[in-house]
Amino acid sequence: MRRVPESADAARRLVRTALVAWGQEDLIEDAALVITELVSNSVHHARLESIRVLITRPSEECIRLGVADRTRSVPLLRMDPDGDDTRGRGLLIVNALTERWGTELYRWGKQVWAEMKCEAAG
Questions:
Q1: Which position among 2, 62, 63, 78 has the lowest Cβ density within 10 Å, counted as fewest Cβ atoms?
Q2: Domain residue limits at 63
Q3: What is the pLDDT along the chain (122 residues), one digit of tens a residue?
Q4: Is the residue at 99 inside a domain?
Q5: Cβ atoms within 10 A of the Cβ of 7, count?
């Protein structure tokens, strides 16, 4: 998808669709916020025109949200949430709403991902 602020809307729709299909409607609100922050970081920091949004279910108990771009700069969690700068707080939100998050570096760029626990089908 294009690397523009409006891409967060499309990413939220993708997340909603996947979570409904998996019967995980209770995660939609938090997952939408997480994907919004990941897309926002990529829109702000990446270099090329496009990004890729990934929504996977690596196990019955886990949802993984990710955004891949063609920049190898690794995002850092800001530790001064009371600072004057209003930018840079997105990863604090991601950190608070997910079980874990991280960055995978590739030869061509990176993927920033976050995992959320979910109810196993049963």
A1: 2
A2: 7-117
A3: 878 878 999 999 999 999 999 999 999 999 999 999 999 999 888 888 889 999 999 999 999 999 999 988 888 777 665 555 555 578 999 999 999 999 999 999 999 999 999 987 65
A4: yes
A5: 20
Give domain status of residue 2, yes or no: no
Write the burial class of residue 74 (CB in 10 Å: 0-12 exposed, 13-18 middle, 19+ buried).
exposed
Query: Is 47 within the bounds of a domain?
Result: yes
Give the span between the Cα atoms of 43 and 12, in whole angstroms: 15
Contact indicator for 18, 84 with CB cutoff of 8 Å: no
**For the whole model, what pTM was predicted?**
0.88
Q: The CATH number of the domain where 80 resides is what?
A: 3.30.565.10
Task: Determine the Cα–Cα distance for residues 99 and 85; give it in Å rounded to an integer.
Answer: 26
Residues composing the chain: 122
